Amino acid sequence: MSTGLRDSVIRARGLGKKYRQRWALQDCDLDLPAGRVVGLVGPNGAGKSTLLNLAAGLLAPSAGSIEVCGGPSAADVAQLARVGFVAQDTPAYARLTVADHLALGRRLNPAWDDAAARERVARLGLDPKQRAGTLSGGQRAQLALTLALAKRPELLILDEPVAALDPLARREFMQLLMEAVAEHELSVVLSSHLVSDVERACDYLVVLVDSRVQVAGDLDELLATHHRLVGARRDPDRLPAHQQVISARHTDRQTTLLVRTEEPIHDPSWSVDGINLEDLVLAYMDRTAPAVRRPRLEVQR
């Protein structure tokens, strides 16, 4: 099912989730564009799973609001049907067969595409009579993805679905995922700690660190507007105002900065280089970097 003309597939305003005295997610403002594959990255404990569970309707916010596919998260059965969700441990009922899982999906989902589910199971080489508890990790992940796709969602949420898979199973999962995305014109939010998966599959990036969104935007635009500057040691605060310092490193004689700017850098005293996705993600995740002039995050519209 296509998201049509809807601009945002997930819209959060001041979103937060608190467990007792600890905030797992705070002050989250996001507009994730429809029809894109969004990569959600950050260290363990950053709040990625919390954000995805809020979007899937498995958690209720402690603060703020979240809309998914144009309506309140998990407002009713119709709203739940718009979202497919594959959790990190790709849960399955161990004693049920593959065929039992398809039958359960057919009974629980009003827009269930049984023909597509059966065709996908056959293409994957899964035995319909085999119990889920005897499947390999890669097979369970593919079964979970099949169930999520067969409900014909507008939004597919994947919470580190390949974290426990070996490299071959991970590659096969990602390949089949991208084929499904192209075929069904899905909006996807993919949480992963593997930058290579994000680089291969995603065109929009969100970085979460310490329960807060650090940066969000079109991946190509983010890479084009971040630069590494290397030059003689100096105070980063002396840079022009439009050069927003993300990270700074110093030796006795040299300063290395990662800056964000949409304007050309003309200062000849700097050696200026582009960065890759790993450089970008690590710069925003680096908790040991000294305090620098970070940009104020603005909601991407």
From TrEMBL:
SMART domains: AAA (SM00382)
Stored InterPro entries: AAA+_ATPase, ABC_transporter-like_ATP-bd, ABC_Transporter_VariousFunc, P-loop_NTPase
Membrane keyword on record: no
Gene3D superfamilies named among the record's database cross-references: P-loop containing nucleotide triphosphate hydrolases
Keyword terms of this UniProt record: ATP-binding, Nucleotide-binding, Transport
Gene Ontology molecular function: any one: ATP binding
Keyword Transport appears in the UniProt entry: yes
Top-level taxon in the UniProt lineage: Bacteria
SUPFAM superfamilies: P-loop containing nucleoside triphosphate hydrolases
Pfam families recorded: ABC_tran
Occurrences of domain ABC transporter (ranges): 10-235
Name this protein carries in UniProt: ABC-2 type transport system ATP-binding protein
Phylogenetic placement of the source organism: Bacteria, Bacillati, Actinomycetota, Actinomycetes, Kitasatosporales
